[in-house]
Batch of 4 targets.
Target 1
Amino acid sequence: GESVGLHLPTLSVQEGDNSIINCAYSNSASDYFIWYKQESGKGPQFIIDIRSNMDKRQGQRVTVLLNKTVKHLSLQIAATQPGDSAVYFCAEDPNQGGKLIFGQGTELSVKP
Amino acid sequence: KAGVTQTPRYLIKTRGQQVTLSCSPISGHRSVSWYQQTPGQGLQFLFEYFSETQRNKGNFPGRFSGRQFSNSRSEMNVSTLELGDSALYLCASSLGDEAFFGQGTRLTVV
């Protein structure tokens, strides 16, 4: 069935290091992908998105890479800070009327 | 600009009861989606409404229902609550592609 999965459930990094969170998707019809950050007690917060006609998109300290050949998505966070500690979800839009398919989530822990 | 508002934030119900959750989208957003979040299943799509019409529905039993009003506010209802319905229920509104989430309603069924 449809699924968006994450390779690593937990990731621990030192403050100042770069973080990479990976995601695999299975629906070839998806043409829009989003990364969300969810802090404890809060709803998911939009970080960055990318359309399938792009391979890379950069934001402030974050970069999303899309490899459609292997159906892989990654989120890179530069100079990771303690405030980046959260659960990160990738999501895909399979063009089914407002439905997003979410991955399991990766918990990022930043050590000071 | 106010974000997505969900009420109540916390709710405790007994098995067999029914519950109604409310979501006020960002002003101007006509699409409202609902998700259930549990530790075991993650974020799962419940349904989506646009201009008072349900456009899409996830794989949940008929006990889960929703509606949208003319001002785009949405409600979801769960009847005959089961212990397994305990979860964080999230609402998201969107104008285009980007979906903005509320803080959720934490439902505990005892």
Target 2
Amino acid sequence: AQSVTQPDIHITVSEGASLELRCNYSYGATPYLFWYVQSPGQGLQLLLKYFSGDTLVQGIKGFEAEFKRSQSSFNLRKPSVHWSDAAEYFCAVGAEIYNFNKFYFGSGTKLNVKP
Amino acid sequence: DTEVTQTPKHLVMGMTNKKSLKCEQHMGHRAMYWYKQKAKKPPELMFVYSYEKLSINESVPSRFSPECPNSSLLNLHLHALQPEDSALYLCASSLDRATEAFFGQGTRLTVV
């Protein structure tokens, strides 16, 4: 069965510090992987996605993620965090069903940024 | 245009009311989704329409009734809801199976 685990419920980092959010998935085939960000009361915005090819993917707002098949991981990184990055981050895996994806979301990691 | 538009943004309804949530996209996407999100929780899939046909119903109570009138529109009809149905309702769309989902800003529903 497909599942996504985000082991960190809350993370607090200082502004300017580096960030890594962890994501582990369980999926039988080659996964489609995503990171979404959500500000309070808002919808989800796509940060980046992995379908195939280069395992290091670049996204918006200076984020990147690395797909490691051997570890079933897709961790999100940013070298220098800005106060505006404070939000909830969701990792997701997309399972192909006919002509659409069924998306499985992790439980989310809330990022706080200290000034 | 890469937007999914949801209306209304906020809705307060009584337990005997009937209301509808609306979702619209003009990206040519053929899959559309309804998610329910409670506070501090991830989105929870409710329904998926693919090519205007209901493809997934995640055992959602019948007081929620989805409708896809055409490839750009998705509605969620609400009737006799309970206070525990209060949540953020998110609509999303995707082009096909090898693409990401685009989310709307959501409708904040409060059932009183």
Target 3
Amino acid sequence: GAGVSQSPSNKVTEKGKDVELRCDPISGHTALYWYRQSLGQGLEFLIYFQGNSAPDKSGLPSDRFSAERTGGSVSTLTIQRTQQEDSAVYLCASKGGPYNSPLHFGNGTRLTVT
Amino acid sequence: KQEVTQIPAALSVPEGENLVLNCSFTDSAIYNLQWFRQDPGKGLTSLLLIQSSQREQTSGRLNASLDKSSGRSTLYIAASQPGDSATYLCAVPSQGGSEKLVFGKGTKLTVNP
């Protein structure tokens, strides 16, 4: 009965380094979402997966950001050459039912770029 | 472009009070609206989802209403408790039935014992 699991919970990295953030959705959930939450900006959509495909990746801020999903389950969000403005909480959510089903969020990964 | 506004940004009430949180959105052609709760350092918990064909949804002490034509939703909390203290966010699809949600910046609620 586990919920959405994200790792690590906190990540501190130096500017210019690459980071990988992981999301384990609820078992059986076919839809997976990444959002970013930063002070003053609220929650911003990054990307949506249906199975292993990403029909909507319109929210990825630059080509330094990429995400993949394998086996219709785990997803990884990768940020290359991190910048200080990338500091935020990265939230993952999944949904298992039809369109009008609620989202289930993980507790997020707090990324700090120094 | 869909925009979501929540008023007030913060609210402090004594325990036991009934209260209303407001959410407005600019594009009324939405399929649903969701209300979430976020506790400090945690993710979001879905509270209520109202489909476009519905006018309200209830869960325990919570009641959410939706008026699509005016682009508004309210979350009513009855007999507030200190455990209700959290940030409440509403979200709607960016357009129609899009999977991309647009969130308001939330109302931070504090219920004082």
Target 4
Amino acid sequence: NAGVTQTPKFQVLKTGQSMTLQCAQDMNHNSMYWYRQDPGMGLRLIYYSASEGTTDKGEVPNGYNVSRLNKREFSLRLESAAPSQTSVYFCASSEVQGGGYTFGSGTRLTVV
Amino acid sequence: SQQGEEDPQALSIQEGENATMNCSYKTSINNLQWYRQNSGRGLVHLILIRSNEREKHSGRLRVTLDTSKKSSSLLITASRAADTASYFCATDRNTGNQFYFGTGTSLTVIP
């Protein structure tokens, strides 16, 4: 099925560990995004990539890095995980900037 | 900081009734979108409305936009149990490229 695929679906990390969340889309979309969703906070934009080769910070970029590996893939890296990064992470893509997003099913991350 | 604020935070209705959710925002926009999220799932795009549009329809969904009041509403007519979900508005803060989400309205449709 066409769409946005995120891996892993669940992850538990210890404080200070690092990990990379993977995201791939097969719709030939130009723009990709990483959001985190916390109870009562809605979704907050971490980083986005308007097109292949570009990345920009969103609202809450601290503690994260991203890589737009190619047009299909956009990864999110936590270099030194903290309990405050416990959240559900969503990747999304859009054909053009300003267009509707297609979301992945999310990665539920717990940092202990 | 959140751009959109949905109201009410929670809404419970009987199947067959209409559900109305509102979204207010603070800065000017190019586009506003509405999304649905079923429990434990990703968000699904419902409707995009541009700042020069006042109303859009999609099936049982009707979205209005009043840029002078910086507000939008989502109306779901003849609701079904399957409409039970959280609904979010998202605005682009006039950037045209990334969207900022509100905290959502939790809708429960009772069969």
